[in-house]
Design brief:
single chain, 7-stranded antiparallel β-sheet, alpha+beta, globular, about 260 residues
Length: about 260
């Protein structure tokens, strides 16, 4: 179980004083430290790099942290409360997707919006590639927007070891909390369009576990990360050798 406001606790648990939301993320997801204090983000990213590249070198870990630092800073500035990503080994082919979550505490003008009104506003944004609809989740009715953009994928996530332009599929779920005039926003993005069906199923499995809580202390169980056999990863630019990447199987990602 993950929360919008992570905190410390015994191994396998996260104890939060007043969480607004909880949700379940598959145990194989790596989490970006968007909830850390600014002065601790760099060290947290190096520790994340060590988890992703357990057989890497300090140079590789530092390089990864330096690459991700601007992205994490941008997420923190945008108010992202959760950011996680998976690295899959699909029959020897690497695949990845990112999931972010945010609780928007200031809905414009304090209006209590509905899924239908949000969907109407999203549809008005235009875009030939965008598709908007409403769906029912366990936590209530939500608006969903599907889009596809072209972006540059970092070298550490490409098979060539060089930055590449790729099409990125995105799903955004907007869940209005009418009682508090707040909005829950979850987004999935993946450059691996051949695995779109897999990731869209995974994403809706996640958002269907969203639960809204009152301001009372709870303890949420966090599944332990399973071990996996890492495939060949990107090159360590410091030493010119390939470093194993801690990727997971589809079974691990779906729990």
């Amino acid at each position: 179980m993950s929360t919008m406001f992570p905190g410390g606790g015994p191994a396998g648990t996260a104890v939060i004083a007043t969480p607004r939301l909880t949700f379940r993320v598959p145990p194989a997801f790596f989490e970006l430290p968007v909830y850390e204090a600014e002065e601790q983000v760099g060290q947290a990213l190096i520790e994340l790099a060590q988890d992703i590249y357990p057989q890497g070198t300090p140079e590789l870990w530092f390089q990864y942290a330096a690459t991700q630092l601007p992205l994490v800073a941008q997420m923190m500035e945008a108010g992202v409360d959760y950011a996680g990503f998976c690295l899959l080994d699909l029959d020897g082919r690497r695949s990845t997707a990112t999931v972010t979550g945010a609780l928007l505490e200031s809905v414009p003008d304090g209006r209590k919006m509905t899924a239908a009104s949000v969907a109407a506003e999203l549809a008005g944004l235009g875009g030939e590639e965008a598709q908007v609809e409403t769906v029912w989740l366990t936590a209530g009715e939500a608006a969903v927007r599907f889009t596809a953009d072209v972006t540059t994928l970092p070298a550490e996530l490409t098979d060539s070891g060089r930055p590449e332009e790729v099409q990125v599929g995105k799903i955004a779920v907007f869940l209005p909390l009418r009682r508090e005039a707040e909005m829950v926003l979850f987004e999935l993005s993946t450059p691996c369009m051949q695995d779109w069906d897999l990731y869209s199923d995974l994403f809706f499995n996640i958002v269907n576990t969203i639960e809204v809580h009152s301001d009372s202390a709870v303890e949420a169980q966090v599944p332990e990360q399973p071990a996996a056999v890492p495939p060949s990863g990107p090159a360590d630019t410091a030493n010119g050798v390939h470093v194993p990447l801690q990727a997971q199987s589809v079974r691990d990602v779906f729990g």
